[in-house]
Amino acid sequence: MTQDWNTRTKLVHGGTRRSQYNEVSEGIFLTQGFVYESAEQAEARFVESGPDEFIYARYGNPTVAMFEDRIAALEGAEAAFATASGMAAVSAALTSCLRAGDHVVAARALFGSCLYVLEEILTRFGVEVTFVDGTDLDQWRAALRPDTTAVFFETIANPTLDVIDLPVVATLAHEVGARVIVDNVFVTPVHSRAIEQGADVVVYSATKHIDGQGRALGGVILGTSEFIRKTVEPYMKHTGGAMSPFTAWIMLKGLETISLRVRAQTASALALVDKLQGHPKLVRAIYPGHPGHPQHDLVMRDMGAGGTVVALDLSGGQKAAFRFLNALEIVLISNNLGDAKSIATHPATTTHQRLPDDQKAALGITPGLVRLSVGIEDPDDLLTDVMQALDAV
Length: 393
Hints:
Strand order of the largest sheet: 1-7-6-5-4-2-3
CATH class of the largest domain: Alpha Beta
Shape: globular
Strand content: 5-15%
CATH architecture of the largest domain: 3-Layer(aba) Sandwich
Helix content: 40-55%
Number of strands: 12
């Protein structure tokens, strides 16, 4: 029945499990273990557990299962596994299905920790990784090989907001039998059509829009039941990166309002960038949902909206960027995104600071680039704040 509901109904009611008390708000099952009525029942459960039969919180928990079922219903995935953080989700999605000798093709424009997993951890254990310009389809064609096991990319790149043509890359990857794994954070679950468009595995940092209120770390891996149950779940059971029940309850509460928040943030982001076009203090104002973005048509075709994050490239370099950041009054300086509060950061000295300068230049991470995650504040107040901060540069 859940699949027949519209999105906002799924976000409120999907996956709900009620105890014998018939509570309105989802119960928090703060337990690490579960009791069996007999030794025979314990034996049977370790052989095969049913959907509402649990063994140990590292394996599964009723509150966590509610979150997994709800986000899977939203994404259109068969199953999900909730993790302790977004990076736990990224690393598990990759590591659980790779082994020494496998080949991965990945977009070069990635969050710094994702690059670390690919460049340092996977290669350390014998996985070959080839990086490409994710927007260049010819580079994908050249890099993919018959022995390519997986491809990995951010559907909208952090922080430059380049957009990868998911349907085409997925088709190319599937032609050589590779699994398509995407980090979909900047698209958000609200605007996502990733599985419909060819992604085999979708990863989110639930810390971002799903919580959306700066309270807890979390992540989630979505895919087919076979991949989640037979590949991801055994890996996570034994390596211990599962989400806690209390965090899952927070994420359930976040899902109830994510559509309202993200759509408001998206509208504010578009309005802000529209007003900033041609500003004399800016080299460029970047937003995938704005008609001036070079991949706007692709964004509207695949996602229908540009998300909640904009990037401002100040003409005065790092000095100008720092003056701008320090002059902001409403917008906070932090390295998170997708929050109800507007947040700005300077990627070159924070989230991507470990990259060599030549790599930053190649990716478009200039000294003047500021990533601005638009919150749910009044859009006129946000515009006033950004304008007065630009005046201070």
